[in-house]
Amino acid sequence: MDLDDTLVALADGTRRNILQRLAAGDARVTEIAAPFDISLNSVSKHIRILERAGLVRRRVAGRDHFLSLDPAPLDAAAAWMQRERAAWTHRLDRLEAALRAEDAIAKAKAKSRRKP
């Protein structure tokens, strides 16, 4: 699983719609393609991007291709986002504390200059 592949796959509305449909259960490629106003070939390209990202698995039974959702890459992306959020929150909290301390020092200096 590669985070870049996951994010690229999620960047397109058609692919997100495909994932949303597969969240309800396995489906044939033709069932997935039916609601879209694009060619089956175009839907297949979207599916290949989802497969490359590991978000979709394909099972072939005769002439039918069944797709299923694999949420593991979504879980990995969510975990990465949570770690990044925590790290940035910590950094921003430290920056805020430093700026408040700097402001307090500046106020104290200004106050000491005003006293006769």
Key attributes of the depicted protein:
116 residues, alpha+beta, 5 helices, 69% helix
Topology:
Layout lengths: L2 H8 L2 H11 L3 E2 H5 L6 H13 L3 E6 L2 E6 L2 H43 L2
Antiparallel strand pairs: 1-3, 2-3
Question: What this model shows, in words?
Answer:
With about 120 residues, this protein is of the alpha+beta class. The chain is about 70% helix and about 10% strand. The chain has five helices and three strands, in the order ααβααββα. Strands 1-3-2 form a three-stranded antiparallel sheet. Strand 2 (about 55-60) and strand 3 form a beta hairpin. Helix 1 (about 5-10) packs antiparallel against helix 4 and helix 2 (about 15-25) packs across helix 4. The mean pLDDT is about 95.
In a nutshell, what does this entry contain?
The chain has helices at residues 3-10, 13-23, 29-33, 40-52, 72-114; strands at 27-28, 56-61, 64-69. With 116 residues, it is an alpha+beta fold.
Number of strands: 3
Bin the helical content: 55-70%
Low-confidence stretches: none
How many H/I helices?
Answer: 5
Quaternary structure of the protein: single chain
SSE topology string: HHEHHEEH
Question: Tell me, what's the shape?
Answer: rod-shaped
* Cα-to-Cα separation, first versus last residue: 68 Å
Q: Order the strands across the largest sheet as they lie in space.
A: 1-3-2
Radius of gyration: 25 Å
Q: Kindly report the average pLDDT value.
A: 94
Characterize the biggest β-sheet: 3 strands, antiparallel
Strand content: 5-15%
Structural class: alpha+beta
